[in-house]
Design goal:
Length: 192
């Protein structure tokens, strides 16, 4: 299913009745990033992780996690774990360009965990991370979840992510699920 986010923040999905929902792009208009924020419509795709661009972004994400944290403190999912039952993965596109990704892991009937949020390097600082966070939050609400949880890193490389989550109402908390205290992890949650 594809969902288009318009610059004004409206979300709409179209279903032709003959298969998965699809979105019509503006005819003849190539949607590329311009300026500090992305203003063209964003296209969120329920992604099976089979595409080369998606695989490369997940690999870049894992490389970044391993560069910022010791191996025992890296909790990022690889493609096979992102395909496991209970995990739903989306990519976000600007025209033909992969701009980012993120996943929702169902912890139980009331709680979900955000996983593998990553913005492609070419789109950093352009609002893609916030758009993906809003998309995942809306999906969690639509599934009836009551709270979201995040484990992220504590090194300086994670400061932009921490600021994003805090600005969206996440607050720091202790470990949840199977996580344990770790000086390289920050745990956060928010009610929906």
């Amino acid at each position: 299913m594809e969902v288009q986010i318009h610059p004004a923040g409206r979300q709409c999905a179209h279903d032709s009745g003959g298969g998965p929902a699809s979105v019509q792009a503006d005819a003849g208009r190539r949607m590329l990033p311009s300026g500090p924020r992305v203003t063209p419509p964003l296209r969120f795709v329920l992604d099976d992780l089979s595409g080369a661009a998606t695989g490369a972004l997940i690999a870049r994400h894992l490389d970044g996690m391993h560069a910022s944290s010791p191996p025992e403190s890296v909790h990022a999912f690889d493609a096979s774990r992102l395909r496991q039952p209970g995990v739903t993965f989306w990519s976000v596109w600007v025209g033909e360009d992969l701009a980012g990704c993120g996943a929702l892991k169902i912890l139980d009937a009331d709680r979900g965990e955000l996983k593998s949020m990553r913005v492609a390097d070419a789109f950093l600082g352009r609002g893609i991370g916030r758009a993906m966070l809003e998309h995942l939050t809306a999906e969690a609400r639509a599934r009836g979840l009551r709270s979201l949880w995040i484990e992220t890193g504590s090194s300086p490389a994670f400061v932009p992510a921490l600021r994003l989550y805090e600005s969206a109402g996440f607050r720091r908390c202790g470990p949840f699920g199977d996580y344990r205290e770790d000086p390289f992890s920050v745990f956060m949650t928010r009610e929906l």
